[in-house]
Amino acid sequence: MLSPRPLFKVARLAAAAAALLMASAAVVAAPARARALPAPGTPQKTSAAVENSRLDAPLFYQLLVGELELGAGAAGTAYEVMLDAARKSRDEQLYKRATEIALQARAGDQAVAAAKAWLGAHPQSVQAHRYLVQILIVLNRLGEVAEPLHALVALTPANQRNALIDSLPLYFTRSADRAAAAAVLEQALRTELQAAPTRVSALVATGRAWWGAGKGNRALELAQRAQADNPRASEPSLLALELLPTLPAAQAIVTEHLQTQPGDDEIRLLYARVLGASQRYAEATAQLELLTQRAPQTAPPWLTLGALYLELRQPAQATVALQKFVELEQENVLTPPVMEESREDADDAGTPTELTRNRGLVTAWLMLAQAAEQQNQFASAEAWLAKVDSPQRALEVQSRRASLLARQGRLPAARALIRQTPEQRPE
235-243 and 251-260 helices cross at what angle (nearest 10)? Predict the structure, then answer.
């Protein structure tokens, strides 16, 4: 609960603010008049129309008092002053500021009151609805969420509505009662579940919410309805891939989608990875072989395919796949990315794009060494390990080198290599 500052302190701050305002006005007034009156005989210049700000002296004074109070630690007074200014001016930014002051002070009831006052003044504001929905969810007041959430979706422009619907399950990830949250989301999307342009997104979003609540069969039913509504859409398959490890019936959604859309490389790659994670290596390999035949210049599937061949103890095929990956990645390194990374996102090792490529190459080199070792090609394995120049993988590389020596019967040399490895952690 926010408590206001005693009135005599407010008055003292108000007097200081008023003096500051008067002094600023006295300093600015004379030069402004001089600029406003041109010299006699000077031709008048036509200027564009100027839209005056609604910030007058009393409002400026009130805002200054509010910010001073907040800076002095009196969040209760700052909230009351800012909310009063918002009501007088009907300015959206001031309602937003009052809401944020309450949130900063962890005063949930006041934050809800400010957001509702904001909505009262601006009932068509998408931002006000979003604030109210998120605050109510954080406060676990799920019974009040459905109607403002329904309004938020309805007010969102049609070309952005499906993207918003897709993101809604994330709003409820921290809800204490996930089943109640899923029911609220389903109620809020009642209109979108019936409308053709949004039906698939609404079914998938609701299914994902029920999956988060532990209701797998309900989620599967909604994914099946979405897939039947639009077999070409990828969203039902994405939900089905989440369900697949525990609900085998979800596989039919993915396979039917790939029959309808055989060129959906993203779904096929994700499907292969889910199969691989479930140790269904042969099925995953078949999917990746199709993908690499269809898009041979795409690098990531070759890396995953190489890893699967290693699991199947097929080192020769793994070597071919991994070398293809290395070839494509090294070509990519020579070709700068189309989108530039900001300097803040880069570090001494290079941009995030370069780091991702380097990690992929390191992984490929280590797997190539493993493939060579499986074929008893120890010199070849050592050559691949020599390419790895990563401090994070130094212990792994040395262990692999020691293993190669041990397999050749050179146990003393293997032990000496392990002993020479610099210690990074006590274990």
Answer: 150
Cβ–Cβ under 8 Å, residues 372 and 357: no
pTM given for the model: 0.74
End-to-end CA distance of the chain, in Å?
Answer: 49
Residue given tokens 């990746």 in the structure block? 288
CA angle 110, 185, 188 (to 5 degrees): 80
When pLDDT is cut at 50, 70 and 90, the band that residue 60 belongs to is confident
Tokens 């200054």, residue located: 64
pLDDT of 160: 96
The whole-number average pLDDT for the span 393-401 is 71
Per the model's pLDDT, the better-predicted residue between 120 and 383 turns out to be 120
- Is residue 195 left, alpha or beta, with left meaning phi > 0 and alpha meaning psi from -120 to 50? beta
> What is the full DSSP assignment across 117-169?
HHHHH-TT-HHHHHHHHHHHHHTT-GGGTHHHHHHHHHHS-HHHHHHHHHHHH
The model's confidence at residue 184, banded by pLDDT at 50, 70 and 90, is very high
pLDDT at 174: 87
Residue 72, both tokens? 């002095």
Q: Which among 158, 215, 148 is positioned nearest to 188, based on CA atoms? A: 148
CA distance 273 to 228: 24
Q: How far apart are CA 384 and CA 365, in angstroms?
A: 5
What gap in Å lies between CA 175 and CA 213, rounded to an integer? 10
The DSSP 8-state label assigned to residue 250 in this structure reads G
Burial class of residue 366, CB neighbours in 10 A (0-12, 13-18, 19+): buried
Separation between Cα atoms, residue 370 and residue 376, nearest integer Å: 10
| Residue (of 337, 339, 340, 386) closest to 366 by Cα position | 386
pLDDT at 3: 59
CA distance 125 to 111: 16
Task: Calculate the average pLDDT of the chain.
Answer: 82
Can you give the C-alpha Rg of the chain in angstroms? 32
Only one residue has tokens 């369900």, namely 243
Residue type present at position 383: A
Which is more confidently placed, 120 or 32?
A: 120
Taking the CA atoms of residue 254, residue 255, residue 259 and residue 264 in that order, the dihedral angle to the nearest 10 degrees is 40
Mean pLDDT calculated for residue range 268-285: 95
